[in-house]
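HUMAN:
Sorry, I am quite new to this. Are you able to go through these amino acid letters and fold codes? The numbers rather puzzle me.
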Amino acid sequence: MARSETRPVPQPTPETQHFWDGLAERRILIQHCTPCDRAYFPPRNHCPFCGGTAVEVVRASGAATLYSFVVSNHRVPGFARPNVVAVAALAEGPRLMTQIVDVAPDPANLTIDMPLEPVFEDLPEGPTLLHFRPAPNGAAR
């Protein structure tokens, strides 16, 4: 992916630090609410479903499916044109915004519910980013 010096870089916060630390170790860490037994993303100090504060950090499998996508041709500093902006649904339930990489950015190459696998990108000027790519042979790992 083409990068630019003006690209915005995510800034971890106390609530999201575990997520960024996990990505640096090639792990996807999400939060799980003990009372209602649901995983969620983005990180926060309370459950978005029941409001409970008994939450724990758990490791997601990395298996995901393509929930939604758009092929973007907008000029955005630090991003190649065109690129695929997507929502990936983790096997554990949460959905997250991401980029689909390692595939030509053409709707003919992407289908809703296709299996995805994680790709980790180390930014020299910031944290590791999480992207996804189509899983080989259509099987999520």
Q: What stands out?
A: The helical segments are 17-24. The beta strands are 28-33, 38-40, 55-60, 64-72, 83-90, 95-100, 115-122, 128-134.
